[in-house]
Amino acid sequence: MPAQQKKIIFCIAGVLSFACALGTAAALSTQLWVKGTILCKTGALLVNATGQELEKFVGKIQYGLFYGERVRQCGLGGRPLQFSFFPDLLKIIPASIHVSVILFCMVLIIFALVAAGFFLFNAFGSPYETLHGPVGLYLWSFITCSCGCLIMILFSSEVKIHHLSEKIANFKEGSFMFKTHSEQFANSFWIILVCSLVHFLNALLIRFAGFQFPFSKSKDSGTITGAVDLMY
User: Fold this and answer.
1) What are the angstrom distances between the C-alpha of 222 and each of 18, 168, 177, 227, 229?
2) Nearest alpha carbon to residue 12 among 141, 112, 123, 126
3) Rounded CA separation 109/158 (Å)
4) pLDDT per residue as tens digits for the range 75-115
5) Which ranges does the record mark as transmembrane (predicted)?
6) Cα–Cα distance for residue pair 158/190, rounded to 1 Å
């Protein structure tokens, strides 16, 4: 492939990596990771609510990695409540998983910026043969893509397996019990998915630019090696 086309491909990959870093940083600071509704089970059972009457006992909840908001509704109107994970909810949530998600988000931001820098360096500079060259580009893209996948897996397990929304909804609730009525991942979670796909696409762009995958042997090298063996 001509050098000019390679520069264009590396520029596109660098811009995409930089955009992913900014998107992850924005997602990290928002509360748009999970949205859902919570049912005041105790209140609904007290009045034997059914059908449309249940709407008076269905509140809302949304949260991110640091803070969130829930609307408590038990038949007397909605009562909003702000909460934060640190330090309010540390005793009721799987803290190790939650902190790991935050750390992997930071690693994703750092390596996305590193990948963007090296993509642009390869586009406008003179790349070295190791970490600045194609092997390095594959490495940074693989790390960032892996971090994005780990973030989604860990956060999904925290929400679905450990029932994070119910734990938050029942935080400091003495006589009332809340149950998750509906739950879905919001914009910030899908930004992480898009970032993972982008870095996978970047790896394909490197291959499209004409570089072999790491540790793969070209036919020419095999031919040269065979000729040398025949000489001896």
Assistant:
1) 38, 60, 69, 9, 11
2) 123
3) 21
4) 777 788 888 998 888 889 999 999 999 999 999 999 999 88
5) 97-123, 135-155, 189-209
6) 16
CA distance 38 to 72: 8
Residue type, 173: E
Give helix 187-208 / helix 134-156 axis angle, nearest 10°. Answer: 160
Amino acid identity, position 67: Y
Name all domains of the chain by residue range, CATH numbers in brackets: 3-208 (1.20.140)
Place of tokens 């956060």: 155
Q: pLDDT for 152-208, tens place per residue?
A: 999 999 999 999 999 998 888 878 888 888 999 999 999 999 999 998 888 887 777
Tokens of 209: 């630019």
Amino acid identity of 223? T
